Design the sequence.
């Protein structure tokens, strides 16, 4: 049975081109890039070439503005804690109620340490309310940290506009965005549209590179301090021996991501839209979370009334289909998604959420398989649901 992988917002398959680029640094070029002997020069040069490639893929920023980390979570922690440490005179932070846990939990920790954090709400479609944001800004605000696109719903946030408004309020406000889900699906240009963003985080394993590598853009002149302290690596900005093969793989994945953005915006979007339309036609009492919002082209988040998301995932898995009920970082929790709670998804559907996220490696056959299997699974589960009236095919409450 062919596996249909539709959980690309959780992680992605490593691209063959990425594996090929990494291979020498597992074998013949295994040397520590910080060593002084001649053999170590090749991996050291590979890191700097990778830095140049990533900088170019981010719109042509300076290579020295890019540092490599172990994950987007580390990049987000580094961005927030590093900014706070470098700016003790300011203690107000603005974020949202729908951030990834690697931002949300850092903000909560900063609250416990005495900082004031404004968590902006979203509407039923997952959009931020611009008036709320404007009213939250203060001249003594230290930082704004708002994601480019939501990992669960795919809703896109107007970070360029939010950064402009913040800088007009006070040019000293530091702007951070978690771009983990946006890289490869949207054009990300830190020299043009995002020129007022100071810090940007992303991860390799969401763009067909390995797990265990990420990057953080730190614009020149940003008041910020290193988070990982120890050795001199990354010019003293991130201690720890560099993961050369993964850094090389991340750079190659970034090149491929830039080259395939148009494919995401056309072919992948068309598959997502076809899947959405088919499910809306075949399944009663489902809602598309964020349907009226600007969304990533690959993401479909469904609120399915009357049944549990975990049961849907189990049955999909038995049919060889991989999807999720939300963020993989919180999937072990029995609590409903904090994103869907913030969007005020109804009680009868919030536990029945299903996220389908496609990639350039999916095809029409995959979509057909989901369309064939999912409506039958939902119908079967609703037959045993206490919330579903099988005779009338409607919710009981």
Sequence:
């Amino acid at each position: 049975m062919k596996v249909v992988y539709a959980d690309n917002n959780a992680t992605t398959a490593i691209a063959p081109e990425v594996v090929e680029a990494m291979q020498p640094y597992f074998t013949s070029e295994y040397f520590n890039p910080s060593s002084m002997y001649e053999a170590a020069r090749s991996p050291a040069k590979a890191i700097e070439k990778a830095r140049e490639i990533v900088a170019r893929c981010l719109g042509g920023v300076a290579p020295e503005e890019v540092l490599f980390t172990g994950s987007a979570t580390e990049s987000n922690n580094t961005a927030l804690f590093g900014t706070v440490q470098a700016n003790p005179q300011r203690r107000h932070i603005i974020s949202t109620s729908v951030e990834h846990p690697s931002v949300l939990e850092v903000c909560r920790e900063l609250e416990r340490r005495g900082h004031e954090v404004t968590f902006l709400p979203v509407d039923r479609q997952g959009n931020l309310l611009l008036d709320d944001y404007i009213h939250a800004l203060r001249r003594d605000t230290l930082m704004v940290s708002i994601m480019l696109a939501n990992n669960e719903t795919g809703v896109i946030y107007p970070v360029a506009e939010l950064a402009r408004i913040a800088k007009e309020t006070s040019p000293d406000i530091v702007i951070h965005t978690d771009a983990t889900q946006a890289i490869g699906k949207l054009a990300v240009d830190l020299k043009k549209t995002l020129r007022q963003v100071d810090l940007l985080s992303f991860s390799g394993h969401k763009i067909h590179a390995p797990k265990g590598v990420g990057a953080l853009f730190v614009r020149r002149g940003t008041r910020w301090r290193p988070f990982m302290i120890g050795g001199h690596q990354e010019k003293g900005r991130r201690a720890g021996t560099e993961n050369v093969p993964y850094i090389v793989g991340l750079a190659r994945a970034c090149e491929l991501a830039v080259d395939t953005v148009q494919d995401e915006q056309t072919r992948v979007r068309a598959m997502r839209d076809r899947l959405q339309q088919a499910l809306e036609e075949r399944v009663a009492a489902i809602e598309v979370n964020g349907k009226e919002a600007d969304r990533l082209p690959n993401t479909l988040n469904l609120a399915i009334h009357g049944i549990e998301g975990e049961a849907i995932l189990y049955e999909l898995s038995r049919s060889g289909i991989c999807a999720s009920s939300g963020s993989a970082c919180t999937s072990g929790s029995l609590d409903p998604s904090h994103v869907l709670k913030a969007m005020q998804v109804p009680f009868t559907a919030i536990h029945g959420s299903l996220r389908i996220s496609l990639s350039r490696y999916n095809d029409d056959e995959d979509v057909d398989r989901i369309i064939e299997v999912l409506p039958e699974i939902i119908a079967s589960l609703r037959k045993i649901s206490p919330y579903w009236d099988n005779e009338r095919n409607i919710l009981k409450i």
The chain has two domains: 4-11+261-395, 16-259. The two ends are 39 Å apart (CA to CA). The first helix runs from residue 16 to 22.
